[in-house]
Design a protein that fits this description.
five-stranded mixed sheet, about 30% strand, seven-stranded mixed sheet, binds S-adenosyl-L-homocysteine
Length: about 400
């Protein structure tokens, strides 16, 4: 067992049970262990701090599995952690009308680097850290025995793996190869999900509760769904009586899948329009054509990938929100989101306030939104909170 000693006064974050050790905090390592191997982390004066997975290449050199000195990091440990994560989901998800949700949310479920999502009978995993990769076989065995899925599919085809010295990979890990589209149910609505090629693990499960909120405002409304992806918000709106929805997305594949999803829910093609355009440009076209809407949804991709992009991202959020507020009828509502972890809730609220001010309209915040609760946030890991949103009303 390799023991890794921290520099003097660099133990504070671990004492607060934040699970990351940055390379700069480490004193020196005599025999560096292999990628992903479990190490013991101690303070400069030799006090036990945690058991963690070592990553040779990453700036985050160690991700802590456990802060308990008596814990053994073995298959049993992973079994307990996974069971605990599953138990929470059985409490927070109404499984009678939803069969797709996040089962394991990495750091926030005490399993750094491991994402596990359930899509009906299939499980999709991402192994995003050296430690998660190291335990892959055991995790797959545990998931197959605890959940009895038809198949387990890996979607570790993401850039962050490079930082951990790992290659991007995807493919079946257990059971049957999934079909190209899997059918799921979310709050009683049906969706096709492309778990093999779709964004993230195939679907934006984090928006489940926010889509549900749209239902109560949709009756008889004309709705603009910007960054519509596979039509999540649109299906909810049209099934709850919306008059008309316009989907806007720069991806033709996403719009085609949205069309399939709307048809799957029995919605006639007369009820919606698909626009393949850049939202920044399309909102200006609508402005120039004096168009108006009752509800506008803005759920863009991550604009800030790093701290250095915060300013530019803020300008992007302000731009689309200002345009959207101006396009709303009196009494109209804006569902607006940011999934950039680097944009704090405070900053996002400020951006929306600035957009409202510049629009010259009076805007009320009806509700503060966040990610659905299967996307857990540990109190020790504030980075886990990434999705924030507001429902605003133009008065
Ligand atoms: N609201 C969706 C998720 C949105 S994901 C849901 O509930 O499922 C973001 C989407 O924005 C992606 O589909 C992506 O293709 C699209 N996109 C990214 N940049 C865009 C742009 N500038 N204009 C239009 N669409 C864009």
């Amino acid at each position: 067992m390799t023991i890794i000693k921290l520099k003097k006064n660099r133990q504070r974050s671990l004492e607060r049970k934040h699970p990351w050790v940055f390379s700069g905090a480490i004193d020196s390592i005599k025999d560096p262990p292999q990628n992903g191997v479990t190490v013991k982390v101690v303070s400069a004066d030799g006090k036990f701090l945690g058991w963690g997975a070592y990553s040779i290449k990453s700036q985050i050199s160690i991700r802590i599995w456990s802060f308990d000195e008596n814990e053994k990091i073995d298959t049993e440990y992973f079994k307990r952690q996974i069971e605990q994560a599953i138990e929470l989901r059985t409490q927070i998800i109404d499984t009678t009308n939803s069969n797709a949700y996040r089962l394991i949310n990495a750091e926030s479920d005490g399993l750094p680097g491991l994402i596990v999502d359930k899509y009906n009978d299939y499980i999709v995993c991402q192994f995003l850290s050296a430690g998660a990769e190291f335990w892959k076989q055991e995790v797959v065995k545990l998931l197959s025995s605890l959940l009895n899925p038809t198949g387990i599919y890996e979607r570790s085809d993401v850039e962050v793996r490079e930082k951990e010295g790992l290659l991007p990979v995807s493919g079946a890990l257990f059971g049957n190869e999934p079909p190209d589209l899997i059918e799921i149910i979310e709050n009683g609505n049906q969706f096709f999900v492309d778990i093999k090629k779709g964004h993230k693990t195939g679907f934006y499960l984090d928006q489940r509760d926010n889509r549900k909120l749209l239902e109560r405002f949709s009756q008889g409304k004309e709705i603009l769904n910007c960054f519509s992806f596979s039509g999540g918000f649109s299906v909810y709106a049209l099934k709850s009586g919306a008059d008309k929805v316009i989907n806007v997305d720069s991806s033709i594949d996403a719009l085609e899948l949205a069309e399939k999803n709307l048809a799957l829910n029995g919605i006639s093609s007369a009820a919606y329009e698909n626009i393949n355009d850049d939202v920044f440009k399309y909102l200006r076209k609508l402005r120039d054509a004096n168009k108006q809407f009752d509800i506008i949804i803005l759920d863009p991709p991550k604009f800030a990938e790093s701290v250095s992009q915060i300013e530019k991202a803020s300008r992007g959020y302000k731009d689309i929100n200002l345009l959207a507020i101006k396009l709303l009828r009196k009494g109209g509502m804006l569902f607006t989101f940011s999934c950039s972890g680097h944009i704090t809730t405070e900053l996002f609220n400020k951006i929306i306030a600035d957009a409202a001010l510049d629009s010259g309209r009076n805007v009320n915040i009806v509700k503060y939104l966040t990610q659905s609760p299967d996307h857990t946030v540990s109190t020790n890991f504030p980075e886990g909170l990434y999705l924030k949103g507001l429902i605003c009303r133009v008065i």
